Amino acid sequence: MAIPVRVPPSIESLLSSERGAGLAARHGRLRAREALREAADRFRRGFLPAGRDAAETLLDAAEASLSRRPPAGPRPVVNATGVLLHTNLGRAPLAVAARDAVLRAAGYSTLELDLATGGRGKRGEHVRPLLLALFAPGRDDLDALAVTNAAAALLLALDTLANGRPVAVSRGELVAIGGDFRVPSILARSGATLLEVGTTNRTTPEDYAEAIRSGAAVVLKVRPSNYRIVGFTEEVGLGGLATLCREARVPLVYDAGAGSPRRFEEPGLRDEPVPAEALAEGADLVCFSGDKTLGGPQAGVLLGEAALVRGCAKNPLARALRPDKLVLAALAATLDLHLSGRSREVPFHGMLMASIEGLEARARSLAAAAAALGWDAEAAPLVAIAGGGAGTESTLPSFGVLLRHPGAGEAEAAARLRARELPVIARISEGRLVLDLRSVAPEEDADLLAALGDVLAPA
């Protein structure tokens, strides 16, 4: 027996209807057309009911599909992984003050306008005084410049100071961080040539001295933030390198990766770079990130000897690497929070400061609520990490919830959490779904509980 052919109304007739025109006005004609075509295809194959007006059936399906379409661009998530600076999730979440600053700057703004004179201003001045006040108070001999990220800061420094000339780097510091950031690649793009010094595990002062005698124009020290070499090792600290470089009148550039205004109290983060200390040890120029331990937006900072920073600012490449108004607004607000003694309002620093007692109380409350919904749930001590290349050994005591779904495996439950309109990103360990609360803001606990309730519904 032949299956009757189901013929849907034409797409143009649907778009010409009052409802179709409304869909096109709200979502755009191209998207509305595509949604109606998909609905028509489902109708032909029998996946949509045929017992009522076909046009209304297709319009209902298209409207439902368009309403489920996520907004363009990155979406917010709840980070329950216990990785505070999660690279895949955008590293440091911005403070409320930084988000407000972004909104203020989103329209017309004083990006490059001097209100006093009515003439052209300098965009860097929105953050330069704040950077100097936070990282180099009382140092009139220093200057600062913000660029797009830490790799850009290093690229600009090397292009300015050593274009076409050798840069001495220890073989043990030729790092690869993340997918594509490699120090040798940055050196090549800057026009400088790589002069490898020492061996992977041992580099001595004499190795650097020989490199300088061989014509090195810059000595670069790189902090290998995401690994450690242990055992039979030797390296030259900034102080020792500074002595060599001063005598030879060769600039010493320190790629710190991250930069904190002060030493952290957390044991795993105590060795994180403090730019002011690096400059005090003798570095001429320090490059670091704005979205790691500082807790701001993705940005790079050059801090150091005023003449060197001014040279970098005058480099034509600086224009290509300058941050936009939204980054500058968020960075300025973050710096201001640190300067005003409100660093706890910076989410990364707030997560670090959260007490284990408070985390445990939240975990027990959430576990009890999850169990009431039908989950196998228990509160448990966990170990979080700073992440983002900050503090390779930065284990942080934490507390969270261990979960088992009553009818699905942990991988399926994790997938359902990710599939929500507000995705929850959890981790899986030893057959349990894990929600680590150190990376979850207290006000997000309600979102977690709502997500756990949703995931219990049949797929």
Can you describe this structure?
With 459 residues, the protein is an alpha/beta fold. It folds into 3 domains: 11-67, no CATH class; 78-88 and 349-455, Alpha-Beta Complex (Aspartate Aminotransferase, domain 1); 94-345, Aspartate Aminotransferase, domain 2 (3-Layer(aba) Sandwich). The protein has 18 helices and 15 strands. The protein has helices spanning 11-16, 18-27, 29-44, 54-68, 96-105, 128-135, 150-162, 183-190, 205-213, 238-248, 275-281, 306-314, 317-320, 325-339, 347-353, 356-373, 410-418, 445-455; strands at residues 78-79, 142-147, 166-170, 176-177, 181-182, 193-197, 218-222, 252-257, 285-289, 300-305, 376-387, 390-404, 424-425, 427-429, 432-436. It has a 7-stranded mixed beta sheet with strand order 2-10-9-8-7-3-6, with helices on both faces. Strands 11-12-15-14 form a 4-stranded antiparallel beta sheet. Helix 7 packs across helix 12 (306-314). The longest helix has 18 residues, at 356-373. The chain is globular. The two termini are 35 Å apart.
Quick synopsis:
This protein is 41% helix and 18% strand. It is of the alpha/beta class.
Q: Any idea what the CATH architecture of the largest domain is?
A: 3-Layer(aba) Sandwich
Q: In CATH's first tier, which class of the largest domain applies?
A: Alpha Beta
Low-confidence segments, ≥5 residues, pLDDT <50? Answer: none
Strand order of the largest sheet: 2-10-9-8-7-3-6
Largest sheet descriptor: 7 strands, mixed
